[in-house]
């Protein structure tokens, strides 16, 4: 006798996908222990981690990009409402394939675009790279500056 399962109309529609991902992770752990790959994990290693904050007059982005050989290995593009970082991290050695014992570091091209909280002046943006940290300063446009006006009550 087969066990009949009634379909719950309020069940999570992605529950089966989540279960499949968990099963794939367990299988991967068995096949390649210690490799570090996780199904469904974000590709964080391929994109710089970034903090963005704003002051009264500017928006500042601080990105971690360790391993750049020079500041010319990163391209910064600013529009009125977005910031894009592109570049390439190069391996400092030529060893590949079977000679690698353990590899965790990311090498290769990266690209990341983020929206900005307010409108900025792209032509006045500046960027500095030092000790693996890229800092981008973007002055706010007049539209992006928050103004406070006291309104009299009559």
TrEMBL record:
InterPro entries per UniProt: A-crystallin/Hsp20_dom, CS_dom, HSP20-like_chaperone, Small_HSP
Domain SHSP: residue ranges: 41-154
Pfam families: HSP20
Entry similarity comment: Belongs to the small heat shock protein (HSP20) family.
Superkingdom of source: Bacteria
Domain CS: 45-152
UniProt protein name: HSP20 family protein
Coiled coil: none
Cross-referenced SUPFAM superfamilies: HSP20-like chaperones (SSF49764)
